[in-house]
User: What shape does this take?
Amino acid sequence: MYYPVTRLRRLRSHPTVRNMVNETIVSLDNLVMPLFACPGEDVKNPISSMPGNYQMSVDVLAEECKTLYDLGIKSVLLFGIPEEKDEHGLVGAHEHAIIPRAIKAIKEKVKEMYIIADICNCEYTTHGHCGTIVDGDVDNDLTLVTLSKQAVAFAKAGVDMVAPSDMMDGRVGHMRNALDENGFNNLPIMAYSAKYASAFYGPFREAAESAPQFGDRKTYQMNPANSDEAMREIELDIEEGADIVMVKPALSYLDIIRRTKDTFNIPVAAYNVSGEFSMVKAAAEKGWIDEERITQEILKSIRRAGADIILTYHAKEVAIWLKGVKTF
Ligand code: PBG
Assistant: This one.
């Protein structure tokens, strides 16, 4: 039937009917807030390129988690800034490293908080690359060992989920084995499976002090031009035991999120990364856009593309905007 019998505006004529036929809902249950743990006590350093985000010492971080939990944000993703760095990133992978300390402090303050820890070496290496350097490039197989060490150390500290973001080949299987051998066979792995070598990570590298000191990450992160390769990465991670697969960044990669959702029967996460957040903040500060509406539209588009979980620096503000309402 065509116009004039069919008129699609009929179902847009009243807010109630618009809500009845609304196809996509974002719930606070879908959102994860990334946080940055740093050394010291009572430290709350603003991250200039990411307004409203801070490097926090573990005492402040634990307080922040209480606030987030009370607002309805039930999960956080942790990144660590260590006192000192080393060549292999091993400073991040022991019992008293920054992330294990942060995990314990959070669990003590708000034990229900679901803690996900990013697993990577770039915050912990002197050169800022995601693994051990041999002949000017990251050595895949040596890096697997440090990554798995990190995962086991975080598991021992009480983390609820690990999220490897390094893009080494075979890291999910290696980590799954290491976790299982240490009795953590119930700990889920959320793999950053289709992670692109993206300029959208710029502000994060200030936040995590993890910019590479030479070269770039193109020998391990994916070429933004590729979609078939993303399917291959995801397929391999699933075979190696990933429980959730992630696409990162989100906004320039909505097609990859949709293709992943249509191709695989597995929960999909999307990372609404730092550059995507900072662009919204900058335009909002200039008064050029309505931050709240834009953010809700962005998160809805990521969900509509097929993401079950969204990692976003806007999580806290969304919870404040919603004031106790869980969905929009
Ligand atoms: C670590 C890591 C990065 C991000 C998440 N984990 C940075 C990178 O790969 O350079 C980026 C997150 C963001 O930009 O918000 N490898």
